[in-house]
Amino acid sequence: MRIEDKLGKTRFKVREESHIRLAPGVPERRRAEKLCLACPAGLYSLDGDGRLLFSHLGCLECGTCRLLGWNRELEAWDYPVCDFGVQYRNS
Amino acid sequence: MSVDKFDVIVVGGGPAGSAAAYTLAKAGVKVAVVERGERCGCKNMTGGRLYGHSLKRLIPDYEQRAPLERRITKERVSFVTRRGATSLEFSCRGLGGKQAASYSVVRAKFDDWLAREAEAQGAFYINGIRVDDLVVRNGKVCGIAAGEDSLEADVVILADGANSLLGQKLGLVKPLQPKEFAVGAKEVIRLGRGTIEERFSLSGGEGCAWMFVGEPTGGGMGGGFLYTNEDSVAVGIVATVSDVGYSGKSVAGLLDDFVSSPLIAPLIEGGELCEYSAHLVPEGGLKMMPQLYGHGVMLCGDAAAMVMNLGYVVRGMDLAIESGRLAAETYIELAARHDFRPEALRLYRKKLESSFVLREMRRHRGAPKAFASRGVFTRLPVLAEDVMKAMFTVDGVNTSGLPVKVLAAAKKYGFGQLARDMLRLLTSV
Hints:
The structure holds two protein chains of two kinds. Chain A is of the alpha+beta class. Chain A contains three helices and six strands. Chain A has a single domain, classed as 2-Layer Sandwich (Alpha-Beta Plaits), CATH 3.30.70. In chain A, the strands form three sheets. A two-stranded antiparallel sheet of chain A has the order 1-6. In chain A, strands 2-5 form a two-stranded antiparallel sheet. Chain A has a two-stranded antiparallel ribbon with strand order 3-4. The relative contact order of chain A is 0.28. Chain B is globular, with a radius of gyration of 23 Å. Chain B folds into three domains: 8-69 and 105-174 and 290-364, 3-Layer(bba) Sandwich (FAD/NAD(P)-binding domain), CATH 3.50.50; 179-282, 2-Layer Sandwich (D-Amino Acid Oxidase, Chain A, domain 2); 373-428. In chain B, helix 1 runs parallel beside helix 4 (107-121), helix 9 packs across helix 10 and helix 13 (374-392) runs antiparallel to helix 14 (402-413). Chain B is 35% helix and 26% strand. Chain B has helices at residues 15-26, 53-58, 62-65, 107-121, 165-170, 193-199, 251-259, 265-268, 317-335, 342-354, 356-363, 367-370, 374-392, 402-413, 415-428; strands at residues 8-11, 31-35, 49-51, 70-80, 85-91, 102-104, 124-127, 133-137, 140-146, 149-152, 155-158, 181-190, 206-214, 222-228, 232-240, 272-282, 293-294, 297-299, 308-309, 314-315. Chains A and B meet through helix 1, helix 2, helix 3 and strand 6 of A and strand 12, helix 7 and strand 16 of B.
């Protein structure tokens, strides 16, 4: 089952604005690859130029990327404001 | 209740926060809990099991009141290779006895219940608010800030979880280290009560807890888990963050391979995935534990890294509940003198020292290091398999005795390394 389909089973209260912001520029390859592998929602990917791509839609707010990339690949990380974001019912 | 001034503000409505709020409210203290989730528990996930002893101290009849999934009466541990698994199963109807029963739980239900119990004691819950900062005046934590609003209190209890942004802002929690944390990801698969009891050979209301070492994390540090809920099973993996990528697979990919492996797939066949979730787990033990208190502030639960992973036993919620209760008791004792300086709040640490929380974390302080040995995740499952294969293979060719075959398997692991790994494991867990 694809991760997108799995995330489709989890409920979210979606907000347009992202609570995570990538730093500009091309990240160090190995570090960027680790971010891609570590995000349990698979929200990070690398484009052809080695730039990180990220979408906050489907973010499970676990904080793994913050642990790996804060102050380097990520320039802002916070929990979504108010009660936006993931809404677990069965976990 | 007037909302302009509270005695205590608790940040986070998980087990630690609500245990603190329950204890405070019961003693007549004006306490507010600020929780970012619309309901308590909707931002939380667990591997699946609550050891009930500390909750029983808080709410003696919790077993009649709480939304518990299944009482765990069957424990399994499996060492998994690409070819198969060596498993140990222990089942016992009275496992844990009356005082020490453990239950699978679903946090969205459980945390919400505990919050309501605290509310019934008089605690005031403010949901759907993310706390952005702490109000600090002359070095003393005086309250919380969320957007334009602020709320003041004598003491703030931080129970804001594994990734405690507030604890880090205060400098009590050091910058988080990838080697001290694991990322857990899990799937909850609805199967129906009868199917679960059939497939896991369980009687009504009884449950199974199952740990996996080896292949589920592709030999990376961490493991797999499975817990039976009332009508669903929770299957997941936990991977040490610094070790992600060891096998070349992503966390999501490892979990996907695990749920579709021959070990798990037949057990969840025909089930319906109802949720996918992930969370951080602080796994560094005593060594990573932050400063537990400051001027006007105490840290509880995951925010204070109160988690014990011994491989066969993983605990967090029971420590969280006890720490919340003890933080509350500390406040209650100090309230008369109205002294919340660090010198006074040291009492919280003292209480933890004489409770099971710090006693057991101290006893098992070597566990994180023992589980940082690669061999446990790569060679140990193979060793178990080799020994079992030697025991159960009859081919009329290899006629040497079992001890010789076992020695050959141990040699493959490396005698020295095996001795070191085993010694470390045995002395720490």
